Amino acid sequence: MAEVEKGRKPSEESTDDSEEEDSEEEPKLKYERLANGVTEILQKDAASCMTVHDKFLALGTHFGKVFLLDIQGNLTQKFEISPVKINQISLDESGEHMGICSEDGKVQVFGLYTREGFHENFDCPVKVIYVRGGILIYSLLLYEKNWLNRWKTSTLHEGEGTITNVQWRANLIAWANNMGVKIYDISTKQRITNVLRDNVSLRPDMYPCSLCWKDNSTLIIGWGSSIKICVVKERGHTELRDLPSRYVEIVSAFETEFFISGLAPLADQLVTLYFVKENSDHMEEEFRARPCLDIIQPLPEGYEEISSDALTVRNFQENECRDYRLEHSEGESLYYIISPKDIVVAKERDQDDHIDWLLDKKKYEEALMAAEISFKNIKRHEKIGMAYINHLVEKGDYDTAARKCQKVLGKNMELWENEVYRFKTIGQLKAISQYLPRGDLRLRPAIYEMILHEFLKSDYEGFATLIREWPGELYNNMTIVQAVTDHLKKDPMNSTLLTTLAELYTYDQRYDRALEIYLRLRHKDVYQLIHKHDLFSSIEDKIVLLMDFDKEKAVDMLLDNEDKILIDRVVEELRDRPELLHIYLHKLFKRDHHKGQRYHERQIGLYAEYDRPNLLPFLRDSIHCPLEKVLRHFQNCVKLTHCNLSFIGRMGNCRRALQMIMEELEDVDKAIEFAKEQDDAELWEDLISYSIDKPPFITGLLNNIGTHVDPILLIHRIKEGMEIPNLRDSLVKILQDYNLQILLREGCKKILVADSLSLLQKMHRTQMRGVRVDEENICESCHASILPSDMAQNFSVVVFHCRHMFHKECLPSPGTIPGVQFCNICSAKRRGPGSGILEMKK
């Protein structure tokens, strides 16, 4: 491999080595020294020129020899051409004919596979030769074969010194001499332009011109330290006159900080082989003498450097700018750097090279991603993932290393087990536990059991998490159950272990044991376990435990599954816990008033003891309570309650209930409230009669009966001279209540009148609107079209506000009210807004 050093711009200051490595960009090209036969040749001789064909290489030397080589540099054929330096070699497109020119003026063209040939000798050195099909160019003499297979000679240019470079593309030929670069159009036999040499102070033999065609119309010229990009364009018809049909536009021209030795295109960029200027002050001598290969992006008046590589070729210290050449193979994007004692091949880096660079920079994540994206194009790096994992483990980033195992190890179970044992060795089994395969592809059960035992030793919560997340098929369930049981002997009340043991029992279908643990722990999943596995037969004797844990959920579950746990069974289990029995029966009654009817009598006592506010609603809604037994129950109660009295009233003995309130409770407010509930005039009369000789009761009546009984009736019955507490306030209140009633009536009257007027006006506006009559309407009597077919005739139509229409002659006889006609359809139902009539005549 050729040694390559990344180049630096002269203006850059040296920095710390580590910082330089971090900021170093990935190279664009990779380099390889052309060896095999080339090495032996250049040990005895020196390269002077080389040309590249897709199939082979042709190398010329200073001792006048030409060697044909394969792409790997192996020697295939040797030609003794001249005792002096070979200046240039040219191959035609097919690779069947080769042209050679040498320093002693010899020009030879011959077939590599035929005997045909062409030989010519000149008195001066011939620097360039170009072979293309049946055309030969050297020293700007154009040789063309005619139909008799004879050479026809024509001179393209003369009188300006030695020609140093020729390049041909399509119909355009470009050549360089000491004055500049000319471009010739062979199709029109016209020279298009002359691009003058910029820096005339440089010796053209020391700093030769470099030419290359980027495409059929773009020529790149490098001479000295300047680069120009020229585009050949068609001239407009109005501009022709005596000018060539094409012209050249220089689209980019710029100076560089180096001397150009060779040029080649790379997409829209440019590959430049250069020799560093001797007057550069910021470079070391050793680095300055090396040839450099740059990739630059041309701009209209400058360039941007993309990459720069300094090449350590053999004997580079003895070489000059003219000793280097750059040849390229367009088909494979290969660039050959030719020096007298070495040939280096540069090629674009592929995906494998990109991954190599990432690995070298320890960018394992990016390397792995690049390998995944381009897995079809890479030829090596099968173990890049393992290298990344090893790097993470060495760095101590165990969690990331374990996570990457999923992607890297994939379905290779052997690699998975090796990694698990490695993580065990370094004490990091917990890190890899959550990433182990647990789907269709699985490791041996012993692997999972080993990790569970590791968690069980030090992390109960982590152990419980794995049991919840891992399918039970991964490990031997009984082995883990036994291990958990052994740990519970040391810590029998550990809720985490108990919960986990219940989950293990559930997976093992030992639901009764799991249920016992859940109930013992009062775990929220107990109800889910019962529903999911239909364990209702197992909970018949555990109903009290369930209700002690969560009464609401337990009762809802029992009621939702009455077919599995009968009501009688639940009542039997709750007989010693009346407060729980009441909750159950109460919810049962709320759902269905009839299902628990046999327990309604018992519920009266339960309501009276645990839920008195709901007793009265229960009594009102239940039709299954024996009234005599209920009444006996209330009569046995020492303390009367509102429910007792309401029930007595419900049985029809309202006077008895009112008497009990007045005599036993002596509560006038309750008596008034009871009378209001019953809304019975006789009951009010009894209340007034009982209260007439009791001043406190009279005060209560005066304050509360104004909306049910006329207060005057009560006032007239009060004896003269009786002292009544707060009589004045009570009378004032009666007057205020009366005044309020009057105000309310007047307000309601005003609202009623205003609404009536508004509705009347609305009805009037509605009835004043026109009614659309067209041919689609029919007479409601004869069912013919309401409009005649001949609109010129006189006709009369009657339209009611109810939208019923009649021909006037079809209208029924008038009603009983003279001058008023009603719609007989609507009047049969109800006489209303449609009574009015609109008459249309023509």
By DSSP, the count of extended strands is 32
Q: Which structural class matches the secondary elements?
A: alpha+beta
Shape: elongated
Helix content: 25-40%
Can you tell me about this structure?
The chain is 38% helix and 23% strand. It contains 30 helices and 32 strands. The chain is an alpha+beta fold and 842 residues long. It comes from Oncorhynchus mykiss (Rainbow trout). It is found in: Cytoplasm, Cytosol; Early endosome membrane; Endosome membrane; Late endosome membrane. Keywords: Autophagy, Cytoplasm, Cytoplasmic vesicle, Endosome, Golgi apparatus, Lysosome, Membrane, Metal-binding, Protein transport, Transport, Zinc, Zinc-finger. Belongs to the VPS41 family.
Structure, briefly:
This is Vacuolar protein sorting-associated protein 41 homolog. The protein is of the alpha+beta class. The strands form eight sheets. The protein has a five-stranded antiparallel beta sheet with strand order 1-26-25-24-23, with no helix packed on it. A four-stranded antiparallel beta sheet has the order 2-29-28-27, with helices on one face.
Structure characteristics:
842 residues, single chain, alpha+beta, 30 helices
Write the layout of secondary structure elements.
Layout: E1 3-6, H1 17-23, E2 29-33, H2 37-44, E3 47-52, E4 57-61, E5 65-69, E6 75-80, E7 86-91, E8 97-102, E9 106-111, E10 117-121, E11 129-132, E12 135-138, E13 141-145, E14 151-155, E15 165-169, E16 172-176, E17 180-185, E18 190-196, E19 210-215, E20 218-223, E21 226-234, E22 246-255, E23 258-266, E24 269-276, H3 285-288, E25 291-299, E26 302-312, E27 325-329, E28 334-339, E29 342-348, H4 351-360, H5 364-373, H6 384-395, H7 398-409, H8 413-425, H9 429-433, H10 445-458, H11 460-469, H12 477-490, H13 495-507, H14 511-521, H15 526-533, H16 543-549, H17 551-560, H18 567-573, H19 578-591, H20 600-610, H21 615-621, H22 627-636, H23 642-650, H24 654-665, H25 668-678, H26 681-691, H27 695-704, H28 711-716, H29 727-768, E30 796-800, E31 805-807, H30 824-829, E32 837-841
Antiparallel strand pairs: 1-26, 2-29, 3-4, 4-5, 5-6, 7-8, 8-9, 9-10, 11-12, 12-13, 13-14, 15-16, 16-17, 17-18, 19-20, 20-21, 21-22, 23-24, 24-25, 25-26, 27-28, 28-29, 30-31, 30-32
